[in-house]
Design a protein that fits this description.
The complex is a heterodimer of chains A (525) and B (331). Chain A is mainly alpha-helical and 525 residues long. In chain A, 72% of the residues lie in helices and 6% in strands. Chain A has 3 domains: 2-252 and 392-515; 257-320, no CATH class; 336-387. In chain B, β3 (236-239) and β4 form a beta hairpin.
Amino acid sequence: MEELINVVDWSRAQFALTAIYHWLFVPLTLGLGIIVAVMETIYLKTKSEKWLATTKFWMTIFGVNFAIGVATGIILEFEFGTNWSNYSWFVGDIFGAPLAVEGILAFFMESTFIAVMFFGWKKVSPKFHLAATWLTAIGASLSALWILVANAWMQYPTGCEFNPATMRNEMTSFAAVALSPMAISKFFHTVLSAWALGGVFVCGVCGWMMLKKRNMDHCWRSLKVGAWVGVIGIVLTMITGDTSAVTVAKYQPMKLAAMEGLYKGNHEQAIVAFGILNPSKQAFDDQDPYLFDISIPYGLSFLATHDFKAFVPGIEDIINGVSYDNEGNEINTVSYAERMERGKQLQEMLSQYSAAMNSGNTMLQDSLKNVINADFKHFGYAYLDKPEEAIPNVPLTFYTFHFMVTVGGYLLVFLLLALFFVYKPNILNKAKWAKWWHILAIITIPLTYLCSASGWIVAEVGRQPWTIQDLMPNKVAISDLSAGYVQTTFWIFAVVFTALLIADIGIICKQISKKSQTDLDTVND
Amino acid sequence: MTTYNLLQNYWWLIMSVLGALLVFLLMVQGGQSMLIHYAKPDKRALLINSMGRKWELTYTTLVTFGGAFFASFPLFYSTSFGGAYWLWMLILFSFVIQAISYEYRSKPGNIYGSRFYDTLLLINGIVGPVLLGVAVATMFFGAEFTVTKSNILNVQGSSISQWGPKHGIEAIFYWKNLLFGVMVFFLARTLASLYFINNIDDDEVNASQRHQLLINAGVFVPLFLAVVVVILTSPGVGYDDSGNAQWVAYKYLHNFLAMWWALIILLIGVVMVLYGVIKTLMKGDYKQGIWPAGIGTILVVMTLFWVMGYNNTAYLPSLLDVQSSLTLRNS
């Protein structure tokens, strides 16, 4: 058992490591892709060589970042098979389809047009080149779409039916999988947050160049596009963040409770704006969950349901199976203890089903199948040893959520100010504090990356212990490997990816430094 | 044939096309393995720039191949990838280091130096084809695994696919698999020479690649013949309509005879590869050899996939429990 926990932990650590490294590069590809495409569109409209030079400057950085995004991405796809083999079998029919679509459509689209984008300046017409740039950016977003659809399905499994004959889930509706509310909110929230990151990146790089008094006109041109894309990105991220919260409240109430450190819910539930959790707090122990908190009345009820009066269940309520509508009527009566019991009954029925299948008793198979499918939403609870096992890591979920929201709020202000300076450049040009603004812009880059990674930590840690919400916990999803094997590959990944990250940062910094010393009002190549 | 069976066969056809394209595109890896023959930086740059516009196609084909396997035959995905852990991890590591090398090797600020990235390309150029060949060879010659689907009901968690303790290392050092892998490696180098001859307009490179073609094709052809003989004389796992599997002597030979059209396509493919190679070697001004050889390679690999999975054949035989063998029907 101890060995199993180690394999689970190391497998999770390896996936987290590779996913976080991958996500360091993807948002910049998504955000900068749009920014470069907009810049090239302006170039084609204005025929201005200055815009062409600016476009090429950012395209070079896009290319360096794109390569490492591709390199780190391949691992994730195959890791489902190598480290999560039970999971792969259990849901391959559903999860594999979006991944295959990604490979066939989006990835090929990206790799085809990116070659035109980088090598085709003098080989294809300007309009064709622009189309290739847009298609690369759109292709990257389409890649993200299918991955996020797959991820959303793990958070909210839908459009499928369990087949007891094969012991796996089979897709019944591709549309239900691709267009689930979780998938839609996740896609827009994630991709639009990447636009914000792309905008911040442009602001930060321009901040550094302006600090050095290099290519000021180029910087202002870049900022005009970067700040607009950033502002649109952050505003829409906040709107879709609101949608995401409602979706999470509906389909993953335990995650929402962990995000807020909420153990006992209430009507007109306040939201914690700032708080320090009580580290010794355990479910059902009557201790105060917070050492200190500043809360906004009605905030969580409104965030979760868009209704100030709504009841928001806490961790203990969810475990006990208690929730209420606005009239105070109980609306959820299935406790985790009961779900565990029903899950165990399901497992027993599945064993009976296998026996019936082997003996050719189709009548018994049919009757069992109906019962199994009706109660299948409780299937995963059979694997839990106790209800508390289904509580995610509350401190990690709570702090990363609040960090994400706080930095998100800061980014809105920062990007709006950046946009303001674009249209009132003299204010910044004449200000004595301009230097501090530029330094702030540089610091905002790593802050935004941390914010972005925090979002993923909330999404993934908040749904623990589930690989597939309610259906398959981590300990059932893994491959038959020893902890030592996974530990070894974890460290190999850690070393290789860190070395690649250092190389990537080194090259990007050198590119920026070198090119900033050339005249970026003219095309140099 | 039911619609479901038809779809399983159809998806295997797709897998065969993707697998064949992947093997053809391994010419990029073959080309990378040739960097060792060029000391002059300008000549190395010619080779790398020539491959630099093709590597993403190999890469995306590999990703698509994996995604398609995941979607269509998830039990293979979970059994082979989760089981032959080290084999697949080594393949993946070699592709990770490839992806960044093209972009980074000549960029200013490249802290490790261009030689470092050339070495990474060389590693991927050797390890990629050999180990991908080994992985495909396990589908002919079998692997040490069992599948027990009811393990999913074990409340303490237990994998449905159980592999031997070496987790893929044993597959790498099994002589039949290794023979297959080395054959794929020399095929990749042969195709790379044909590609360079077609793509690089440089007399020195042209001359050296014609020399390389002679050597690599000279090694590849006997290796290919050896692999064909080994496959045709090896047992395979067949299954009946109720899914019962058993070892069958000369299974792949029987499959070729039963699917005579596959045998004809195989022969056409072989002739096209030989035509592309021999004509390039015989005629100093002929540069189009990559086309017949490339198409021939695709045809040959597709037929190998067909005899591997069609005609009621298990495409991943289990050496430990024949009933666990993976077929188009059960996976």
